Amino acid sequence: MELAELTRTLEALRDEALSAIAVARDLTELEAVAVDILGKKGRLTVVSRSIGSLPPEDRPKVGAVANPVRAAIEAAIAERTKNLHSEALAAQLGAESVDVTLPGRPVARGSLHPIMETIAAIAEVFAQFGFVVYESPEVEDDLTNFQMLNIPPDHPARDLWDTFYTDIDGYLLRTHTSPGQIRVMRAEKPPIRALLPGRCFRYEATDASRASEFFQVEGLMVDEGTTMGDLRGLLDEFAQAMFGHGKRTRFRPGYYPFTEPSVAFDVECLVCGGSGCPACQRTGWMAILGAGMVHPVVLQYGGLDPERYQGFAFGMGVERIANLRHRVGDLRQYMENDLRFLEQFR
Ligand code: 2NL
């Protein structure tokens, strides 16, 4: 090939390459153009090789044409590569964009079981008077559940607590949280202000007001010079906080083997306000809890000197308090775990 023809071929190749580069729609097409022109067997490469067959004096002249042609093609490929990359990135960002103004997916929130919510509300009131929450085992020994609470083995009062016994001699499911209070007395030095919420067990047939599993909260205060007046004042504050300020309260005589004297604590009927209605059996009062001054024998079992220390204790059924708070009629609902019931307490 002679010089003039070679120059035309190179310029034609350049123009063809530049327009092919310009219309390449993606990096794959661009790469195909680059291989076709600049590759080892590419057309520009092949033409450039033929320079060797020209007479020596012509070679620099063709070189002066061929080198800028190669440079122009390489520059065009580099430029197009850059542009295709940023187009691809822009397209990807456009497709993956997040609309931050869309409403979020709602999070399914759980809620406290009404019994746990009631325990928390009770504990919050007594915490304001310095009572600390303790926990204690659900499987107890007979000694701590009964004997240390002044209930000897053949005492008729045992009939008050129908008990689940385990197959390990001397061990049972606690019938109340009182054994936990014995454990607190044995572990702590007065002044003691303890609150013991927990699950208790009694061998009973289940109906709307009785269950073989239920929750209790018990309180215990022991110090020098603790009186029944302190108990009355504390329980009155509790009733106001739980059931409404201005509610009247009263003590009635009661009986428990572990307290002497023992009382029942009533609040004026939340339904009729004291005038008498079916909800309070026409008495005008609702029984809230039982309480009393800790029996001296029980203090002794707790490792405390009854000549030096006095104490009061009280116990309440959590389901009963929850029924009053939420106007639930049947305590079996607390155990069925039916979400249609539980969702009402959010
Ligand atoms: C009720 C009555 C009560 C107690 C629990 C208690 C604990 C010790 C000593 C003395 Cl260690 N007493 N606890 C006292 C009176 C009543 O519970 O009917 N609860 C549902």
Order of helices and strands: HHHHHEEHEHEEHEEEHEHHH
- Counting DSSP H or I runs of 4 or more residues, the number of helices is 12
Look at the helices and sheets and give the structural class: alpha+beta
Task: List the uncertain runs.
Answer: none
**Main beta sheet, described?**
7 strands, mixed
Q: How large, in whole angstroms, is the Cα Rg?
A: 45 Å
The average pLDDT score comes to 91
Number-wise, the strands total 9
What percentage of the residues does DSSP assign to strands (E)? 15-25%
Quaternary status of these chains?
A: single chain
Principal-axes shape call? rod-shaped
Strand order, main sheet: write it out: 1-4-5-9-8-7-6
Q: Helical proportion?
A: 40-55%
The end-to-end span amounts to 92 Å
Which hetero compounds are present in the coordinates? 2-{3-[(4-chloropyridin-2-yl)amino]phenoxy}-N-methylacetamide
Describe this structure in words.
It is a single chain. With 346 residues, this protein is α+β, with helices and mostly antiparallel strands. The chain contains twelve helices and nine strands. The strands form two sheets. A seven-stranded mixed β-sheet has the order 1-4-5-9-8-7-6, with helices on both faces. Strands 2-3 form a two-stranded antiparallel sheet. A hairpin with a 2-residue loop joins strand 6 and strand 7. 2-{3-[(4-chloropyridin-2-yl)amino]phenoxy}-N-methylacetamide binds next to helix 7, strand 5, strand 8 and strand 9.
